[in-house]
């Protein structure tokens, strides 16, 4: 609980995001609230279309302002940032908040060297000479674990492997010592052995630089490995949040149960059949007004057509009608026993 | 025939299977470099088993899959399927073979023609191979949809009207249309979300039991491979590093690469309790594989002999083969 004492870095309250489409406004993110404390790692988990990337992009001001409506409030270091003009937002992004995107190939331009691109970002935020920025770029590449930074700095993105490119993107995100790193699926495009290296790197950087990290992923394994706090998103809402240990040892929401039961275990007895969640995630246009998960939920009941209440257990909370009395029995039915040990 | 336990005969046998690509070739004679994508692989696939083929990107697992189904011409080696030599068979000779082996691809959207209805795609397969005629075609189409768990009304839809999981089901239906014995599935569930992935994995299991199918299941997700496979082959840089029965291999990997690979996977189940072997670097380029053992550049146990002499895939216990000078116990 050490993190709770640290000051709040990012406070998102009641964030809703809607897009203009041919069929009118489509709500992709519904009433999302979460906090990130200094030096904390928060993981947002969800399947494609759950609204996890949209949440991040809109709070960073990276959405299309003409076609998107963002409601709610976001404050960063106590200052509201949602209505900041683009120029001021640009000063925060890259300097105080670093972004690591999923695909390093699209985050880097192919026509300039890695070093040029890192130096450009440094010089956009700090008033230093090109030569000093270049030296910083070499240092940063060394810090993210490239074996020969002096040589890599003059390479073009296509000359690097996937893992090296992702490191270069991380180096760029770190270039101004941000207090918050936002990583959108940073390891999804990588192989497991390289993914393990990048996860270690992120953990080491948090230790060395003290940055808070928001990690967006769909991989429950990665979450279990790095996160301290977890928010599970489904159909545009955060359906469950809490500390990582709590979420994994005693999940509250039936969607979280389904998610965990869907993953085949790597050790222990082999299951004869995986427990899958029937159906498929809704598209933003077809999300029901009540609980978004109800159409796929094995425990759905008529009351789920209304907006589910927020149930709290300690620091953990879930949007679901299932209460404390009922929950343990239903969870046992939904999850294979050995996972709850 | 005789009273003894019959030794199962492999459905598919590859010996010394090699596939090279030439890259960077120009009009100048002698230009271009040889990329050894699949390097002298020996492999047997037995009837009704599921052979899991795992490896990182660039390990050659997809190329091997495409060689096994002869979507690629193979550079050298022997390939026998169902008693027939198909290593050098031409398109005409392969046509009857294709009725017995089919492939399922990773990206269900890329492998379906967006301008054709599901009905047209599936019935084309039946016509090409003259499997059904007249009213029997319609009957078979409905049977196929039922097999993969889709409503028969969906036959008249276009691919874009389906979700990723449903599209993969259509890909499976198309492969099943010819009533194959062997299906080579190349990363069939990796493009799907976890909750949908479990549904499709279960479908694969169900179909194998119902139709007596044999699978070669190519994937990079070791947990999924463990769930579906009876036997596993681990590939590294175009060669097989280790192969064995699934449970034995996962419980006790003998090749350092297998062990490192297994230890690198973050797990939600019993988190934080595993011992990790962090490999340095990445898989080398197949254009210039290291001499000696291909894994020697990243192996924490590599000795001099590993850098000079390539280890052969050799049996170390029943059903288990390892290509390593110093297998772990």
TrEMBL record, chain A:
<protein>
    <submittedName>
        <fullName>ABC transporter ATP-binding protein</fullName>
    </submittedName>
</protein>
<dbReference type="InterPro" id="IPR017871">
    <property type="entry name" value="ABC_transporter-like_CS"/>
</dbReference>
<comment type="similarity">
    <text>Belongs to the ABC transporter superfamily.</text>
</comment>
<dbReference type="InterPro" id="IPR003439">
    <property type="entry name" value="ABC_transporter-like_ATP-bd"/>
</dbReference>
<keyword id="KW-1003">Cell membrane</keyword>
<dbReference type="InterPro" id="IPR050388">
    <property type="entry name" value="ABC_Ni/Peptide_Import"/>
</dbReference>
<keyword id="KW-0067">ATP-binding</keyword>
<dbReference type="InterPro" id="IPR013563">
    <property type="entry name" value="Oligopep_ABC_C"/>
</dbReference>
<dbReference type="Pfam" id="PF08352">
    <property type="entry name" value="oligo_HPY"/>
</dbReference>
<dbReference type="Pfam" id="PF00005">
    <property type="entry name" value="ABC_tran"/>
</dbReference>
<keyword id="KW-0547">Nucleotide-binding</keyword>
<dbReference type="InterPro" id="IPR003593">
    <property type="entry name" value="AAA+_ATPase"/>
</dbReference>
<dbReference type="InterPro" id="IPR027417">
    <property type="entry name" value="P-loop_NTPase"/>
</dbReference>
<keyword id="KW-0813">Transport</keyword>
<dbReference type="GO" id="GO:0005524">
    <property type="term" value="F:ATP binding"/>
</dbReference>
<keyword id="KW-0472">Membrane</keyword>
<feature type="domain" description="ABC transporter">
    <location>
        <begin position="12"/>
        <end position="260"/>
    </location>
</feature>
């Amino acid at each position: 609980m050490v993190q709770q004492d640290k000051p709040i870095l990012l406070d998102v309250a009641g964030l809703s995001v809607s897009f203009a489409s041919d069929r009118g406004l489509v709500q992709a993110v519904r009433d999302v609230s979460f906090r990130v404390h200094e030096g904390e790692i928060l993981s947002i988990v969800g399947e494609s279309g759950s609204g996890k990337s949209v949440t991040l992009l809109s709070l960073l001001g990276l959405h299309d302002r003409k076609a998107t409506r963002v409601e709610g409030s976001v404050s960063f270091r106590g200052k509201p940032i949602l209505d900041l003009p683009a120029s001021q937002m640009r000063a925060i992004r890259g300097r105080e908040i670093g972004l690591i995107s999923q695909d390093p190939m699209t985050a880097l331009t192919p026509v300039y060297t890695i070093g040029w691109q890192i130096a450009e970002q440094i010089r956009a935020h700090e008033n230093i000479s090109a030569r000093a920025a270049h030296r910083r770029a070499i240092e940063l590449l060394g810090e993210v674990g490239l074996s020969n930074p002096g040589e890599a700095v003059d390479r073009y993105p296509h000359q690097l492997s996937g893992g090296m490119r992702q490191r270069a993107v991380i180096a760029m995100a770190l270039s101004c010592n941000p207090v918050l790193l936002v990583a959108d699926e940073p390891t999804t495009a990588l192989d497991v052995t390289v993914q393990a290296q990048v996860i270690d790197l992120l953990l080491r950087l948090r230790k060395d630089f003290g940055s808070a990290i928001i990690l967006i992923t769909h991989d429950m394994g990665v979450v279990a490995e790095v996160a301290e706090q977890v928010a599970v998103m489904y159909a545009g809402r955060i359906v469950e949040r809490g500390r990582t240990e709590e979420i994994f040892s005693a999940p509250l929401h039936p969607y979280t149960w389904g998610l965990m039961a869907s993953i085949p275990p790597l050790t222990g007895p082999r299951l004869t059949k995986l427990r899958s969640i029937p159906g498929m995630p809704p598209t933003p246009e077809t999300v029901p007004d009540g609980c978004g998960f109800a159409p796929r939920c094995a425990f759905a009941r008529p009351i789920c057509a209304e907006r589910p209440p927020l149930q709290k257990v300690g620091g953990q909370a879930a949007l679901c009608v299932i209460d404390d009395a009922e929950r343990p029995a239903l969870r046992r039915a939904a999850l294979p026993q050995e996972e709850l040990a | 025939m005789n009273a003894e336990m019959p030794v199962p005969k492999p459905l598919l046998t590859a010996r010394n299977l090699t596939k090279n690509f030439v890259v960077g070739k120009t009009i100048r004679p002698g230009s271009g470099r040889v990329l050894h994508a699949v390097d002298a692989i020996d492999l047997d696939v037995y009837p009704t088993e599921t052979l899991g083929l795992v490896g990182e990107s660039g390990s050659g697992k997809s190329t091997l899959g495409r060689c096994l189904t002869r979507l690629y011409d193979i550079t050298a080696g022997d390939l026998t399927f169902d008693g027939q030599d198909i290593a050098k068979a031409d398109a005409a000779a392969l046509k009857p073979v294709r009725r017995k082996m089919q492939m399922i691809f990773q990206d269900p959207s890329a492998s379906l023609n967006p301008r054709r209805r599901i009905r047209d795609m599936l019935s084309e397969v039946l016509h090409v191979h003259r499997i059904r005629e007249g009213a029997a075609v319609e009957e078979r189409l409905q049977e196929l949809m039922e097999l993969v768990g889709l409503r028969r009304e969906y036959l008249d839809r276009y691919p874009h009207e389906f979700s990723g999981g449903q599209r993969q089901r259509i890909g499976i239906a198309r492969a099943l249309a010819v009533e194959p014995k062997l299906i080579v599935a190349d990363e069939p569930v990796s493009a799907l979300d976890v909750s949908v992935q479990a549904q499709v994995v279960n479908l694969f299991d169900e179909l194998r039991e119902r139709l007596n199918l044999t699978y070669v299941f190519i994937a990079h997700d070791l947990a999924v491979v463990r769930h579906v496979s009876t036997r596993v082959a681990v590939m590294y840089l175009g060669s097989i590093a280790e192969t064995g029965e699934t449970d034995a291999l996962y419980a006790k990997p003998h090749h350092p690469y297998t062990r490192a690979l297994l230890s690198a996977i973050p797990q939600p189940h019993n988190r934080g309790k595993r011992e990790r072997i962090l490999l340095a670097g990445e898989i080398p380029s197949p254009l210039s594989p290291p001499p000696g053992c291909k894994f020697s550049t990243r192996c924490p146990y590599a000795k001099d002999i590993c850098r000079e002499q390539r280890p052969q895939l050799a049996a170390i216990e029943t059903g288990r083969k390892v290509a390593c000078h110093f297998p772990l116990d």
